[in-house]
Amino acid sequence: MEVGNDIQEYVSRLKLCGKTRNLTEGRRIHASLSKSPHCANRFLANLVIEMYGKCGDVAGAKEVFHGLGSPNVYSWNLLLAAYAHNGHLEESKRIFDSMPEQNIVSRNAMLAAYAKGGDLDKTKEFFEALAQKDEISITTMLLAYARNGHADQARVLFDQMSNKDMVCYTTLITAYAQSGKVDEARYLFDRMPERDVVCWNAMISSYAQQGHTDQAYHLFKNMPHPDVITWTAVISGCAQHGQLSHAKDLFNKMPQRSLVSWTALVTAMAKYGCTEDALLLFHKMPEWSTVSCNAVIAGLGHFEEIFERMPYKDIVTWNAMAQAYAALGDFGSVKRSFDTMPEWDMASWTIMILEYARHGRLGDARLLFEKMPNWDLVLWNAMINAYATSGHLSECSNLFMRMPQRDASTWNSMVFANAHAGHIDHAKWLFDLMPEWNVVSWTVLLAAYAQAGHLAYAREMLNQLPCQHAVPWNAMIGAYAQLGHGMEAIQAFGEMKNRGVSPDSVTFVSVIAACVSLVTAGVNWELVRSVLSQIAYRETCVLNAIVDMYGKLGAVERARRVFDSIPRPTTVSWTAIISAYAQNGSHHAALELVLAMEADGVKPDDVAFITILTACSHAGLLAQGRKYFRSMSEDHGLLPTMDHFNCMLDLMGRVGYLQEADELVNSMPYLPGSMMLFRI
């Protein structure tokens, strides 16, 4: 439908395009307006500037602005808002300083630019210099504190306000939630003089995002009039924390579904290994948006087909493609995607830097980092985290000292780097220096103590937690299980539930591992059965752990029954059942399952090949062992590791092929260890 010449029609269409971020339609309307009798109308031109700004096209906004004969203060404010809203801090400063006239709107836009830029000190300095502050100024400063994890400073500002509206309450609730202080958020929520749907959604989202899905659902049931955002928040919370069955039930009961709710469920299903169900649900979606396609590309294996079918690809799409290749470990395709992108944003650079780091190319990552025209806090954190996770403490510390600004993520990386290097005392010293802690901060230090065997210190950290969250509890239970303290793991599991923390699939997997150690240590099966009865068996990863447990405990038939109950077994599922048979002497049955796995279209990974080669070795099947060893690289593109070579040498030693074993050792890309030489 062609846009008519009526001014009101232009107004409504331009506002709708800005609201929906429909840049293509906005450009079409702008082209029509340029040819109409209203082409010189400054009011409509200002709306075009606003539309371009909201759609992210600052170049388009600037072009229209410069086409105005005499821009008014409203025009200047809209141009400033366009650059501020899209994160162009330096250009926002230049525009602000060039304005012939500034008002409270201009100053609030500049304050928003500082806040969006992530420099909290400069944001605070600008805010305190304002001669006049209104509700927007104060709310913007509250948001800046919230985004940077400074909930306590946000509370001080909030308490100084004479008039507190629902926006301020909601902002502070969000700040508390993002800092992991859900109890403080709920305290504030309960004392609000009135609540609108936005406040309810903020509180429910806080519970859902922090893993308190039971509390989120309880509040949801008591909400007077939940809207589609409320439903989506609860569904997303359940889905993101592995409660897929509950998420599906809620999704099916939704009176009205949004693209966000569809996308949340699809991506969660993909994340937890239900790829075929996720793809089926994706194709049932009534429409695809760029956002939903981007989310699915990032989470599913069929992303190339979806990418090619998309009529419009934005920078988020290209980044999602690069992320999808990164998830598959396909460095070459990540690099090609990066090089092919029509433009790069901070996320693009971050993806490439992290991918270099993940493949051990820290020099290339640092080179790319130093070449960048400017850095934001996310990019600094990406580089420092790359050094931290790779064990380069010195480089990590040097970058930390160079950083113009730090947030909780920066400090967490430094704590992790020191803990990873074995400097737990220094990690604790840094933890104590942090301006504020979040859930990750507590979990990093707790895990460091636990992994070093200091379980008492780790438990003390858990008891000191200012808020209850599944992640640190999972770290504690996992540490108990890994170190053979099965009973303590079970007791912590019970205490976790008593404190109102909802266990997730990660919890259940650790508890199952603890059950293995209990039975191995001679604990009665009845206790284990009692614990298992408290576990939700719905998710594939939990069922995989049950199969693995029964296999390790010699209950192969039980392992097979659980395996057969898995709707769509993954590579991990098949590996677990193959290992169950192999560990218990049924090597030929294990190899028959390998054939069934291949017939089911499931590809073995490097862990599966270790299990397969071990089965061949114990059965003395040299020909089949050779076949699978060659298949690793020839059919699956997997490079054999030292463990795979060990399996082959063990097999050759068992059947007496010592000369061939010696030739294999000489052809290896690794130096043979003493145990390897002992095998031959």
Care to give the gist of this entry?
With 680 residues, the protein is mainly α. Helix content is 73%, strand content 0%. It is built from 43 helices and no strands.
Q: Describe it for me?
A:
- The chain is mostly helical and 680 residues long.
- Among the domains are: 1-117, Serine Threonine Protein Phosphatase 5, Tetratricopeptide repeat, CATH 1.25.40; 363-429, no CATH class; 539-679, Serine Threonine Protein Phosphatase 5, Tetratricopeptide repeat.
- The protein has 43 helices and no strands.
- It is globular.
Low-confidence stretches: 674-679
Biggest sheet overview: none
**How much strand content do the residues show?**
under 5%
What is the fold named in CATH at topology level of the domain at 539-679?
Answer: Serine Threonine Protein Phosphatase 5, Tetratricopeptide repeat
Distance between the termini: 79 Å
Helix content: over 70%
Radius of gyration: 29 Å
What value does the average pLDDT take? Answer: 82
Overall geometric form: globular
Q: What is the class of the domain at 539-679 in the CATH system?
A: Mainly Alpha
Total count of helical runs of at least 4 residues: 43
Quick one: how many beta strands? 0
Q: What structural category characterises the helix and strand content?
A: mainly alpha
Query: Could you give me the name of the CATH homologous superfamily of the domain at 539-679?
Result: Tetratricopeptide repeat domain
CATH-scheme architecture of the domain at 539-679: Alpha Horseshoe
Topology overview:
Blueprint: H1 7-20, H2 23-34, H3 42-54, H4 58-67, H5 73-85, H6 89-98, H7 104-117, H8 120-129, H9 135-147, H10 151-160, H11 166-178, H12 182-190, H13 197-209, H14 213-222, H15 228-240, H16 244-253, H17 259-271, H18 275-284, H19 290-299, H20 303-309, H21 315-327, H22 331-340, H23 346-358, H24 362-371, H25 377-389, H26 393-402, H27 408-420, H28 424-433, H29 439-451, H30 455-464, H31 470-482, H32 486-498, H33 505-520, H34 525-532, H35 540-552, H36 556-564, H37 571-583, H38 587-599, H39 606-619, H40 622-636, H41 642-655, H42 658-667, H43 674-679
